[in-house]
Design a protein that fits this description.
It is built from 10 helices and 13 strands. The chain binds ligand MTE and molybdenum atom.
Amino acid sequence: MPIITRREWETRGARITPETAVIGRRTLLGASASLALAGRSVRAAEAPALPEAAPRNPAFDGGRALTEEKWAETYNNYYEWGEDKTIWRDAQALKQRPWTVKFEGLLNQPRVVGVDDLLKQMPLEERVYRHRCVEAWAMTVPWTGFPLQALLKMAEPLGSAKFVVFETVQDPSMPNLRNPIYPWPYVEALTMDEAANDLAFMSVGLFGKPLPPQNGGPIRLTVPWKYGFKSAKSIGTIRFAEKRPTTFWEGINPDEYGFWANVNPNVPHPRWSQANERLIGTNDRAPTQIYNGYGSSVAALYAGRQSEKLYM
Ligand SMILES: Nc1nc2c(c(=O)[nH]1)N[C@H]1C(S)=C(S)[C@@H](COP(=O)(O)O)O[C@H]1N2
Ligand SMILES: [Mo]
Protein backbone atom coordinates (compact mmCIF):
# COMPACT_ATOMS: atom_id res chain seq x y z
CA MET A 1 0.00 0.00 0.00
CA PRO A 2 1.55 3.34 -0.99
CA ILE A 3 2.36 5.81 1.73
CA ILE A 4 0.78 9.21 1.22
CA THR A 5 3.48 11.83 1.72
CA ARG A 6 2.65 15.43 2.38
CA ARG A 7 3.68 18.04 -0.15
CA GLU A 8 2.84 21.67 0.08
CA TRP A 9 1.28 21.85 -3.38
CA GLU A 10 -1.03 18.95 -2.69
CA THR A 11 -2.55 20.32 0.46
CA ARG A 12 -2.90 24.02 -0.24
CA GLY A 13 -6.36 25.13 0.76
CA ALA A 14 -7.26 21.79 2.28
CA ARG A 15 -8.51 21.85 5.83
CA ILE A 16 -8.24 18.11 6.29
CA THR A 17 -4.61 17.14 6.59
CA PRO A 18 -3.25 14.26 4.52
CA GLU A 19 -2.44 12.61 7.85
CA THR A 20 -6.15 12.43 8.55
CA ALA A 21 -6.67 10.57 5.33
CA VAL A 22 -3.78 8.22 6.06
CA ILE A 23 -5.05 7.47 9.54
CA GLY A 24 -8.56 6.95 8.25
CA ARG A 25 -7.31 4.60 5.62
CA ARG A 26 -4.95 2.51 7.71
CA THR A 27 -7.12 2.08 10.74
CA LEU A 28 -10.58 2.35 9.36
CA LEU A 29 -11.86 0.03 12.04
CA GLY A 30 -9.33 0.99 14.69
CA ALA A 31 -9.56 3.36 17.62
CA SER A 32 -7.83 6.32 15.98
CA ALA A 33 -10.27 6.16 13.08
CA SER A 34 -12.96 7.81 15.21
CA LEU A 35 -10.68 10.83 15.65
CA ALA A 36 -10.08 11.07 11.93
CA LEU A 37 -13.75 10.62 11.19
CA ALA A 38 -14.72 13.24 13.75
CA GLY A 39 -12.49 15.73 11.96
CA ARG A 40 -14.13 14.83 8.72
CA SER A 41 -17.68 15.20 10.03
CA VAL A 42 -16.94 18.72 11.27
CA ARG A 43 -15.90 19.57 7.76
CA ALA A 44 -18.85 17.72 6.28
CA ALA A 45 -21.31 19.52 8.50
CA GLU A 46 -20.44 22.78 6.76
CA ALA A 47 -21.24 21.46 3.30
CA PRO A 48 -21.82 18.12 1.60
CA ALA A 49 -18.73 15.90 1.61
CA LEU A 50 -16.15 17.80 -0.38
CA PRO A 51 -13.81 16.17 -2.87
CA GLU A 52 -11.93 19.51 -2.78
CA ALA A 53 -10.54 18.62 0.62
CA ALA A 54 -8.94 15.35 -0.48
CA PRO A 55 -5.14 15.21 -0.70
CA ARG A 56 -3.57 13.98 -3.92
CA ASN A 57 -1.87 10.62 -3.61
CA PRO A 58 1.44 11.07 -5.45
CA ALA A 59 1.74 7.31 -6.02
CA PHE A 60 -0.81 7.73 -8.83
CA ASP A 61 0.21 10.50 -11.22
CA GLY A 62 -1.26 9.20 -14.49
CA GLY A 63 2.11 9.17 -16.23
CA ARG A 64 0.98 11.41 -19.08
CA ALA A 65 -0.54 14.85 -19.62
CA LEU A 66 -3.99 15.41 -18.10
CA THR A 67 -6.96 15.47 -20.43
CA GLU A 68 -8.67 18.84 -20.47
CA GLU A 69 -11.56 18.88 -18.04
CA LYS A 70 -14.06 20.06 -20.64
CA TRP A 71 -13.38 16.98 -22.77
CA ALA A 72 -13.62 14.55 -19.88
CA GLU A 73 -17.01 16.02 -18.98
CA THR A 74 -18.56 16.39 -22.43
CA TYR A 75 -17.43 13.20 -24.20
CA ASN A 76 -19.04 10.33 -22.34
CA ASN A 77 -20.41 6.84 -22.59
CA TYR A 78 -23.54 6.47 -20.49
CA TYR A 79 -26.11 4.41 -22.38
CA GLU A 80 -28.97 5.04 -19.96
CA TRP A 81 -29.11 8.51 -21.54
CA GLY A 82 -28.49 7.50 -25.13
CA GLU A 83 -25.97 5.98 -27.46
CA ASP A 84 -23.92 8.97 -28.54
CA LYS A 85 -21.12 10.77 -26.75
CA THR A 86 -23.08 13.97 -26.22
CA ILE A 87 -25.41 12.95 -23.38
CA TRP A 88 -23.78 15.25 -20.83
CA ARG A 89 -26.48 17.90 -21.02
CA ASP A 90 -29.37 15.42 -20.60
CA ALA A 91 -27.57 13.69 -17.73
CA GLN A 92 -27.81 16.89 -15.65
CA ALA A 93 -31.37 15.70 -14.93
CA LEU A 94 -30.05 12.95 -12.65
CA LYS A 95 -30.68 14.17 -9.10
CA GLN A 96 -27.55 13.58 -7.00
CA ARG A 97 -29.15 14.04 -3.54
CA PRO A 98 -30.65 12.41 -1.65
CA TRP A 99 -28.69 9.33 -2.77
CA THR A 100 -28.38 6.00 -1.06
CA VAL A 101 -26.32 2.93 -1.77
CA LYS A 102 -27.88 -0.39 -0.87
CA PHE A 103 -25.58 -3.19 0.34
CA GLU A 104 -27.08 -6.64 -0.10
CA GLY A 105 -26.39 -10.32 -0.73
CA LEU A 106 -23.71 -12.29 1.09
CA LEU A 107 -22.70 -9.91 3.87
CA ASN A 108 -22.87 -9.66 7.61
CA GLN A 109 -25.76 -7.17 7.65
CA PRO A 110 -27.65 -5.78 4.65
CA ARG A 111 -28.00 -1.99 4.85
CA VAL A 112 -28.77 1.21 3.01
CA VAL A 113 -26.24 4.01 3.44
CA GLY A 114 -26.63 7.66 2.45
CA VAL A 115 -23.80 8.68 0.15
CA ASP A 116 -22.75 11.59 2.41
CA ASP A 117 -22.63 9.29 5.44
CA LEU A 118 -20.55 6.89 3.41
CA LEU A 119 -18.09 9.63 2.43
CA LYS A 120 -17.65 10.65 6.05
CA GLN A 121 -16.45 7.14 6.80
CA MET A 122 -14.13 6.76 3.84
CA PRO A 123 -10.55 8.04 3.50
CA LEU A 124 -10.87 10.43 0.54
CA GLU A 125 -7.87 11.02 -1.70
CA GLU A 126 -7.19 12.14 -5.25
CA ARG A 127 -5.56 9.87 -7.83
CA VAL A 128 -4.70 10.55 -11.44
CA TYR A 129 -5.51 7.47 -13.50
CA ARG A 130 -5.41 6.62 -17.18
CA HIS A 131 -8.84 5.53 -18.40
CA ARG A 132 -9.10 3.38 -21.54
CA CYS A 133 -12.38 2.74 -23.33
CA VAL A 134 -12.75 -0.49 -25.32
CA GLU A 135 -13.55 1.80 -28.28
CA ALA A 136 -9.83 2.77 -28.32
CA TRP A 137 -10.02 6.26 -26.86
CA ALA A 138 -8.40 7.25 -23.60
CA MET A 139 -8.20 10.04 -21.08
CA THR A 140 -6.09 10.85 -18.01
CA VAL A 141 -7.92 12.58 -15.18
CA PRO A 142 -7.80 13.21 -11.43
CA TRP A 143 -10.49 11.26 -9.59
CA THR A 144 -11.36 11.88 -5.97
CA GLY A 145 -12.55 8.89 -4.04
CA PHE A 146 -11.44 6.03 -1.84
CA PRO A 147 -10.06 2.54 -2.32
CA LEU A 148 -12.80 -0.04 -2.88
CA GLN A 149 -10.99 -2.06 -0.24
CA ALA A 150 -12.11 0.45 2.42
CA LEU A 151 -15.72 -0.06 1.36
CA LEU A 152 -15.33 -3.85 1.53
CA LYS A 153 -14.10 -3.57 5.12
CA MET A 154 -17.15 -1.51 6.03
CA ALA A 155 -19.56 -3.85 4.20
CA GLU A 156 -18.20 -7.04 5.81
CA PRO A 157 -18.90 -9.57 3.04
CA LEU A 158 -19.15 -13.22 4.07
CA GLY A 159 -16.39 -15.68 3.22
CA SER A 160 -18.72 -17.30 0.70
CA ALA A 161 -18.82 -14.11 -1.44
CA LYS A 162 -16.77 -14.53 -4.62
CA PHE A 163 -17.88 -11.43 -6.54
CA VAL A 164 -18.84 -7.87 -5.79
CA VAL A 165 -21.57 -6.65 -8.12
CA PHE A 166 -22.27 -3.01 -8.95
CA GLU A 167 -25.63 -1.87 -10.24
CA THR A 168 -26.39 1.54 -11.73
CA VAL A 169 -29.64 3.17 -10.61
CA GLN A 170 -32.62 3.04 -12.96
CA ASP A 171 -33.93 6.55 -12.72
CA PRO A 172 -37.09 7.62 -14.59
CA SER A 173 -35.11 10.62 -15.94
CA MET A 174 -33.00 8.24 -18.06
CA PRO A 175 -34.70 8.04 -21.46
CA ASN A 176 -32.89 5.01 -22.87
CA LEU A 177 -34.14 2.74 -20.08
CA ARG A 178 -37.29 2.51 -22.19
CA ASN A 179 -35.25 1.00 -25.02
CA PRO A 180 -35.92 -2.73 -24.60
CA ILE A 181 -32.93 -3.94 -26.61
CA TYR A 182 -30.75 -3.34 -23.53
CA PRO A 183 -30.69 -5.67 -20.51
CA TRP A 184 -31.08 -2.97 -17.84
CA PRO A 185 -29.94 -2.32 -15.21
CA TYR A 186 -26.27 -1.72 -16.04
CA VAL A 187 -24.45 -4.36 -14.02
CA GLU A 188 -20.74 -4.87 -13.57
CA ALA A 189 -18.70 -7.04 -11.22
CA LEU A 190 -15.22 -7.81 -9.95
CA THR A 191 -13.84 -10.86 -8.19
CA MET A 192 -13.17 -10.25 -4.50
CA ASP A 193 -9.42 -10.37 -5.28
CA GLU A 194 -9.74 -7.70 -7.94
CA ALA A 195 -11.90 -5.58 -5.66
CA ALA A 196 -9.34 -5.79 -2.86
CA ASN A 197 -6.53 -4.60 -5.15
CA ASP A 198 -5.31 -1.16 -4.14
CA LEU A 199 -5.99 0.25 -7.63
CA ALA A 200 -9.72 -0.51 -7.52
CA PHE A 201 -11.28 2.81 -6.59
CA MET A 202 -14.69 4.33 -5.90
CA SER A 203 -14.84 7.82 -7.39
CA VAL A 204 -16.93 10.66 -6.03
CA GLY A 205 -15.09 13.59 -7.58
CA LEU A 206 -13.39 14.66 -10.79
CA PHE A 207 -10.93 17.54 -11.16
CA GLY A 208 -11.39 18.35 -7.47
CA LYS A 209 -15.16 18.82 -7.70
CA PRO A 210 -18.12 16.53 -7.01
CA LEU A 211 -18.40 13.94 -9.77
CA PRO A 212 -20.69 15.26 -12.52
CA PRO A 213 -23.71 13.09 -13.33
CA GLN A 214 -22.47 12.38 -16.86
CA ASN A 215 -19.28 10.87 -15.38
CA GLY A 216 -21.27 8.71 -12.98
CA GLY A 217 -21.99 11.01 -10.05
CA PRO A 218 -22.46 10.85 -7.24
CA ILE A 219 -20.51 7.60 -6.96
CA ARG A 220 -18.96 5.23 -9.50
CA LEU A 221 -16.42 2.47 -9.80
CA THR A 222 -13.01 3.22 -11.40
CA VAL A 223 -10.85 0.23 -12.42
CA PRO A 224 -8.00 1.63 -14.50
CA TRP A 225 -6.45 -1.63 -15.75
CA LYS A 226 -9.68 -2.74 -17.44
CA TYR A 227 -11.67 -1.35 -20.34
CA GLY A 228 -13.90 1.50 -19.23
CA PHE A 229 -17.15 -0.45 -19.45
CA LYS A 230 -16.21 -2.27 -16.21
CA SER A 231 -16.40 1.03 -14.32
CA ALA A 232 -20.13 1.25 -13.63
CA LYS A 233 -21.56 4.73 -13.06
CA SER A 234 -24.07 6.19 -10.58
CA ILE A 235 -24.17 3.14 -8.34
CA GLY A 236 -27.32 2.41 -6.34
CA THR A 237 -26.68 -1.18 -5.27
CA ILE A 238 -23.59 -3.15 -4.26
CA ARG A 239 -24.20 -6.88 -3.92
CA PHE A 240 -21.96 -9.70 -2.78
CA ALA A 241 -22.51 -12.91 -4.71
CA GLU A 242 -21.18 -16.41 -4.97
CA LYS A 243 -22.08 -16.74 -8.64
CA ARG A 244 -20.62 -14.57 -11.37
CA PRO A 245 -23.37 -12.37 -12.84
CA THR A 246 -23.79 -11.74 -16.55
CA THR A 247 -22.45 -8.23 -16.92
CA PHE A 248 -24.21 -5.62 -19.07
CA TRP A 249 -22.07 -5.71 -22.21
CA GLU A 250 -21.43 -9.43 -21.92
CA GLY A 251 -25.22 -9.86 -21.95
CA ILE A 252 -25.51 -7.78 -25.11
CA ASN A 253 -22.69 -9.35 -27.09
CA PRO A 254 -20.53 -12.01 -25.41
CA ASP A 255 -18.42 -12.43 -28.57
CA GLU A 256 -17.19 -8.85 -28.26
CA TYR A 257 -17.32 -8.01 -24.55
CA GLY A 258 -16.36 -10.37 -21.75
CA PHE A 259 -16.25 -10.43 -17.98
CA TRP A 260 -12.51 -9.82 -17.50
CA ALA A 261 -11.93 -7.01 -20.03
CA ASN A 262 -8.29 -6.39 -19.10
CA VAL A 263 -6.60 -3.94 -21.47
CA ASN A 264 -4.23 -5.65 -23.92
CA PRO A 265 -2.75 -4.14 -27.11
CA ASN A 266 -2.23 -7.62 -28.62
CA VAL A 267 -5.81 -8.87 -28.40
CA PRO A 268 -7.89 -6.98 -30.96
CA HIS A 269 -11.58 -6.33 -30.56
CA PRO A 270 -13.34 -8.43 -33.27
CA ARG A 271 -14.02 -5.20 -35.22
CA TRP A 272 -10.93 -3.04 -34.51
CA SER A 273 -7.34 -3.09 -33.30
CA GLN A 274 -6.47 -2.35 -29.68
CA ALA A 275 -2.79 -1.61 -30.47
CA ASN A 276 -3.20 2.16 -30.13
CA GLU A 277 -5.49 4.60 -28.39
CA ARG A 278 -6.71 8.11 -29.22
CA LEU A 279 -6.32 10.69 -26.47
CA ILE A 280 -9.52 12.69 -26.26
CA GLY A 281 -9.05 16.42 -26.58
CA THR A 282 -5.83 16.34 -28.61
CA ASN A 283 -6.60 13.28 -30.78
CA ASP A 284 -2.93 12.29 -30.40
CA ARG A 285 -2.33 8.55 -30.61
CA ALA A 286 -0.42 6.51 -28.04
CA PRO A 287 0.50 2.83 -27.92
CA THR A 288 -1.86 0.77 -25.72
CA GLN A 289 -0.14 -0.82 -22.74
CA ILE A 290 -0.97 -4.21 -21.30
CA TYR A 291 -3.27 -3.77 -18.27
CA ASN A 292 -3.30 -0.12 -19.34
CA GLY A 293 0.20 0.18 -17.83
CA TYR A 294 -0.83 -1.08 -14.39
CA GLY A 295 0.46 -4.65 -14.80
CA SER A 296 2.98 -4.48 -11.96
CA SER A 297 0.05 -4.08 -9.55
CA VAL A 298 -2.48 -6.42 -11.13
CA ALA A 299 -0.93 -9.07 -13.42
CA ALA A 300 -0.60 -11.50 -10.50
CA LEU A 301 -4.40 -11.52 -10.09
CA TYR A 302 -4.64 -13.56 -13.29
CA ALA A 303 -1.80 -16.02 -12.70
CA GLY A 304 -4.07 -19.07 -12.48
CA ARG A 305 -6.52 -17.98 -15.17
CA GLN A 306 -4.53 -18.05 -18.39
CA SER A 307 -7.06 -20.38 -20.05
CA GLU A 308 -9.82 -17.75 -19.72
CA LYS A 309 -10.61 -14.87 -22.07
CA LEU A 310 -8.86 -12.27 -19.93
CA TYR A 311 -8.54 -9.51 -22.53
CA MET A 312 -11.99 -8.88 -23.95
N1 LIG B 1 -24.16 2.85 -16.00
C1 LIG B 1 -23.26 2.96 -16.96
N2 LIG B 1 -21.94 2.93 -16.61
C2 LIG B 1 -20.99 3.05 -17.58
C3 LIG B 1 -21.33 3.13 -18.96
C4 LIG B 1 -22.73 3.15 -19.27
O1 LIG B 1 -23.13 3.23 -20.45
N3 LIG B 1 -23.65 3.08 -18.26
N4 LIG B 1 -20.36 3.21 -19.92
C5 LIG B 1 -19.04 2.67 -19.55
C6 LIG B 1 -18.02 2.97 -20.55
S1 LIG B 1 -18.07 2.10 -21.98
C7 LIG B 1 -17.00 3.85 -20.30
S2 LIG B 1 -15.74 4.06 -21.39
C8 LIG B 1 -17.01 4.69 -19.09
C9 LIG B 1 -16.95 6.15 -19.49
O2 LIG B 1 -16.73 6.96 -18.37
P1 LIG B 1 -16.57 8.54 -18.57
O3 LIG B 1 -17.73 9.03 -19.37
O4 LIG B 1 -16.51 9.12 -17.20
O5 LIG B 1 -15.28 8.74 -19.33
O6 LIG B 1 -18.15 4.50 -18.28
C10 LIG B 1 -18.60 3.15 -18.17
N5 LIG B 1 -19.66 3.04 -17.20
MO1 LIG C 1 -16.03 2.31 -22.91
